[in-house]
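Thread: Nucleoside hydrolase, structure

OP (GT): Posting the sequence first so everyone is looking at the same thing. Length is 311 residues per the record. Can we get the structure tokens written out before standup tomorrow? I want them in the notebook alongside the other entries.
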Amino acid sequence: TQKIIIDTDPGQDDAVAILLALASPELEVLGITAVAGNVPLSLTALNARKILELAQRQDIPVHAGCAAPVDRDLVTAEHVHGKSGLDGIELPEPTMPLQEQHGVDFIIDTLRSQPAGAVTLVPIGPLTNIAAAFRQAPDIAARVKQIVLMGGAYFEVGNITPAAEFNIYVDPVAAKEVFGSGVPLVVLPLDATHEALTSADWVQDMRNMSNRCGPAVASWTDFFERYDKEKYGSKGAPLHDPCTIAWLLNPKLFSGRQINVEIETEGRFTTGMTVADWWGVSDRKANALFIRHVDRDGLFALLTDRISRLP
Ligand code: BDR
Ligand code: CA
């Protein structure tokens, strides 16, 4: 099994990613660190616990990390995810506690206590916590197996500004540090995740499942779909964040290139852009596997199989 830490700002698609990980025996979720993003930190830390309780996994610790980027105000996305961040279904108030330890310290301690090269980080929100951990404890970067993240866009350009994807835009300085960390990176940008669109049939299959998690996934994707329908005229909800977990489970579902990706932190119109050298026209060193396409049918078959195993 692969050991992972999920760093997240739930978010309906974050919730599906977490459920996919919990349902997969190939993965051991060591902990969940919450970060501010889609909604403020207090809500993402709350939502993470609601999701774990839905899946009856109160044994997994949830730690709250950073409440905002170091050098700028937090940008949130209630216009996409609703006021709670997890609109679509009312989940009960969680009874499991939030851990006292700060999320950044949890990341540092876990990487130091686990064997070097054993832990994969899966950031599916802004990169604030991960960058803070690397800044506070420079020794840990060499101990990370890889970082598999959702963020960025190149051919599909932006969803929060014309040039930038949300997770990178919220904290471009953190993203720049993570992309420059030397840790092997797998990047799931909008180019791939906008192909991961739910279909009406698939959502119906989720709704018909006899467990609790299937119908919850259906109500989340129903809610999430509204925004993309209005905005992009797309049919279905893009399951951005679950692509990271799916890549870990079956990388053959994805195709991409090992390329150089730099983060714009100062552009007048382009702050937060992932400048991806897809065509290899610069002499900058490759630092990321940048995913371009996903096998949509394969992805949704995997999701159906796994979500059906949950309570
Ligand atoms: C990313 O931003 C958030 O709104 C989603 O949860 C996803 O992580 C997509 O741009
Ligand atoms: Ca997210």
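GT: Both are above now. Quick notes for whoever picks this up: The two ends are 21 Å apart (CA to CA). The beta strands are 2-8, 27-34, 62-64, 119-123, 144-150, 185-188, 254-259, 261-263, 274-276, 288-294.
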